[in-house]
Write a structure and sequence with these properties.
The complex is a heterodimer of chains A (291) and B (492). Chain A is an all-alpha fold and 291 residues long. Chain A has ten helices and no strands. Chain B starts with a helix and ends in a 17-residue tail after the last helix. The chains are: A mainly alpha (291), B alpha/beta (492).
Chain lengths: 291, 492
């Protein structure tokens, strides 16, 4: 395009702008459409994060990713509080951020796949189990594990993608937007409508992915042809549906519907979780696609 | 000179350490921070952590920091040189003796500081206590109020610090803090100190967020009682207060009137600040109302107040905060009635009330071709619809108060001041009639019980008794007698 930034970044910016425009245009229809502009607003920030991760050197982007992980985790632990005695496991979760990001920084997958299970899946439950009073242990452990899974394990994949082709993260952002926008507009997360929503979501996202790859050449950034981009978008759509399912379950359990969400923090989680949840799926897809 | 260096140290400490920690490390979020008074006041809050004073100091603008003093226990914070340096110098704390000597008034320095125009941060619990528990307030705050008549007390409830750095914990663990600021108020210095302390505690507790949801069980939505109709404003307010008070004795109740949110529980009724999980805000609707020149009942600020009240009412729909919601006026009924009396002047066809209902509840958009007509004659409907300002819920029990127009006019004249353009006998009679019609039309669409009462000499207590009877009968298993005709419009 002749701009000083790569095409992938420009396309991501355009995608966020389009989503923002669509959200503003349909906002007046009320109901679920009313929250779309706020979601688009979140994506301005998240899109910027993806751009920085994609462009900036890793010594700049990794601390930023760490800060985002920390802020998200902190918010999560406020919304889904653990037992007061579990404060050291919360501290461990924060301490695990640099531990996990170090192999991500190095791009050492072997180290990453050892650090994560040991730190998060083995040490974390052990710290939770210290002490004598174990009432509510499983509930607390579930809350804690979900938090670290979402924001540390899934979030780390954003960092891992910085080691791939420079266009990977913008492509990921564009495909997540392509998967999420139709799903958010369609609504209907009730169990009865889930299958229909899933099928339609996958088809729409796949279709958008295909069209983008065919006409805008987004697949060239990472060396994927149009069919593979469509498949990737469908894969992300599956992940986004799964993320919505999980966040809805949590929100229902915590009785956090839209107006009663405590200070809007739960809303923030509902926006960031689908975005980070899709990252491991996309990474896995890229490996399957022979990237 | 010593004070100068102390102030420099205080500002450096706050700019480079306290504020970054409070804002970025623990991510403090405030609700209604703007309510902090500009003049001297005393901030009263629950106390569970050493972070509390730091968080409350960020309520004040930076340039006022040297005039804000957290009150600290002299025996604890004066123990070591380091504690003294941090508390008394860097945090600008004012030490008081928790166990004063005979004849010594430990509160005297605080009263003097307030008289000099300083603001204080006071934790009436006396110590950090058990995490998550608000202990009874000591009488010190009551004595302070008695010593300084007219003193503004700013109640604040903080959630989060007890999980970050509770008593007995050595390492702070960052979790978000939520500081809910209440409306500053004064207390009657003639009251007993103990009673003032209890009242202050109730005001702080009223700001607490809704209790956490128990696993696996959903709350029942509250019963919404709206007191509408054209009667003297004072009478309507009195009935509203009485109904709120009486329903509060049965189950937790929240009363919503213009710029007044009441929480009634048991024998206690007070202004509520917490428990309603939605940010307040009337600036934008008020601005729009001014821009598009809404009139009559919805002129300017009144429109903003109505939207805010409606949003609060919407937010209470999940039933976690209360069992009854009592509203003085209902946006849906009021706007529909006004439109019918003013815009259509009784010349509505059968479909029009339904159309308006759909516009107001946001079920349908006003077509651009009809915009000009609405902007000119019923801008309030257009604004609600176009900007999605609120989705007014229909009441479960609509109390329609009527009075002979002459009596209303008498009340209005007795109020003093000039009568507004629409406050004339003919229009008020028209409005009263339209209220009945709107209620009838709505009854066919939503599950709603209408209590039509002609007021002729009855007092608020008598009217409230009748309303109470109906409200209680609505909650019995039989529920309101009308079947819900249109499920789409039901507000549950």
């Amino acid at each position: 395009m002749g701009l000083p930034v790569p095409d992938s970044i420009v396309f991501l910016a355009i995608a966020v702008a389009v989503v923002g425009f669509v959200s503003l245009a349909v906002r007046g229809r009320g109901g679920r459409f009313r929250t779309l502009p706020m979601w688009a607003g979140f994506w301005i920030g998240f899109g910027l994060l993806l751009m920085i991760l994609s462009l900036a050197p890793r010594w700049v982007s990794m601390p930023l990713l760490a800060a985002v992980m920390f802020a998200s985790l902190r918010t999560y632990f406020f919304v889904a509080p653990m037992r007061l005695k579990d404060r050291y496991s919360v501290l461990l979760a924060y301490a695990a951020i640099p531990l996990i990001l170090w192999p991500v920084y190095l791009g050492n997958m072997e180290l990453f796949f050892n650090v994560v299970p040991v730190t998060l899946f083995l040490v974390f439950p052990a710290v939770l189990s210290i002490g004598y009073d174990h009432s509510g242990l499983l509930d607390s452990m579930g809350r804690g594990m979900l938090g670290v899974l979402f924001f540390l394990y899934c979030g780390a994949y954003l960092g891992l993608m910085t080691h791939l082709a420079p266009g990977t993260l913008p492509l990921f952002g564009i495909l997540v937007l392509a998967a999420e926008l139709p799903q958010r507009m369609a609504g209907g997360r009730r169990p009865k409508r889930l299958l229909g929503r899933l099928i339609v979501g996958v088809l729409v996202a796949g279709g958008i992915g295909y069209l983008l790859a065919r006409h805008a050449g987004v697949g060239d950034w990472v060396g994927l042809n149009a069919n593979k981009v469509a498949l990737g978008a469908a894969f992300i759509s599956l992940a986004v549906t799964a993320a919505h399912l999980v966040t809805n379950g949590i929100a229902t359990d915590l009785e956090m519907n839209a107006p009663s969400t405590l200070m809007g923090r739960g809303v923030f989680l509902g926006r960031i979780v689908p975005a980070v949840y899709a990252a491991p799926f996309f990474y896995y897809f890229l490996i399957l696609a022979g990237h | 000179m010593k004070r100068f260096f102390q102030i420099v140290g205080l500002y450096l400490f706050h700019i480079f350490f306290v504020r970054p920690v409070v804002l970025f490390v623990v991510g403090t979020r405030y609700r209604r921070k703007h309510l902090a008074p500009r003049g001297p006041c005393i901030v009263v809050a629950n106390h569970n952590s050493h972070l509390d004073a730091a968080v409350l100091m960020t309520l004040f603008p930076l340039w006022r920091l040297h005039r804000v003093h957290p009150v600290a226990a002299a025996d604890y914070f004066g123990e070591t040189l380091f504690m003294r340096l941090v508390a008394m110098t860097l945090m600008n704390a004012m030490p008081i003796a928790r166990k004063p000597e005979q004849g010594q008034d430990p509160l005297a320095p605080i009263a003097q500081a307030i008289a000099r125009g300083n603001s204080m941060i006071f934790f009436p619990e006396g110590s950090r206590g058990k995490a998550g528990v608000v202990a009874p307030f000591r009488t010190g705050i009551g004595r302070l109020v008695k010593d300084c008549p007219g003193l503004l007390v700013l109640p604040v409830f903080m959630s989060g610090p007890e999980r970050i750095w509770a008593r007995g914990q050595t390492v702070p663990v960052p979790v978000n803090i939520h500081a809910n600021v209440g409306r500053p108020r004064t207390y009657d210095p003639g009251m007993e100190a103990r009673l003032i302390a209890e009242q202050v505690r109730a005001d702080v507790l009223a700001l607490a967020p809704p209790p956490p949801a128990p696993p696996g069980r959903k709350s029942e939505p509250p019963l919404r009682v709206s007191i509408c109709g054209v009667v003297g404003t004072e009478l309507r307010r009195e009935v509203f207060m009485e109904v709120t008070r009486r329903l509060g004795r049965i189950q937790p109740t929240i009363g919503l009137a213009d710029r007044l949110v009441l929480r009634a529980e048991g024998e206690l009724m007070q202004e509520a600040g917490g428990g309603i999980p939605l940010a307040y805000g009337r600036a934008w609707p008020t601005f729009l109302a001014g821009l598009f020149r809404t009139g009559g009942w919805f002129k300017g600020r009144a429109f903003g107040d109505m939207i805010e009240r409606t949003r609060l009412s919407e937010a209470l729909g999940d039933g976690r905060s209360c069992s009854y919601v009592v509203e003085e006026g209902n946006a849906l009924i009021d706007v529909l009635t006004w439109a019918k009396a003013d815009y259509y002047q009784g010349r509505m066809d059968e479909k029009e009330p339904q159309q308006l209902l759909r516009y107001i509840t946001g079920k349908k958009r006003i077509a651009p071709g009809a915009w000009w007509g609405f902007i000119r004659k019923a801008p309030e409907i257009w604004l609600i619809n176009l900007f999605h300002l609120a989705r007014p819920p229909a009441p479960d029990l609509l109390v329609l108060l009527r009075q002979p127009p002459d009596r209303i006019m008498e009340g209005l004249r007795a109020r003093g001041g000039e009568l507004r353009g629409f406050e004339n006998r003919a229009f008020l009679a028209e409005l009263q009639e339209r209220f009945g019609e709107v209620a009838e039309a709505l009854r066919g669409r939503v599950r709603m019980l209408v209590l039509d009462m002609l007021i002729d000499g009855q007092g608020p207590a008598e009217i409230a008794s009748r309303v109470l009877e109906e409200a209680v009968s609505c909650q019995t298993p039989g529920g309101p007698p009308e079947p819900d005709a249109d499920r789409e419009m039901v507000n549950r």
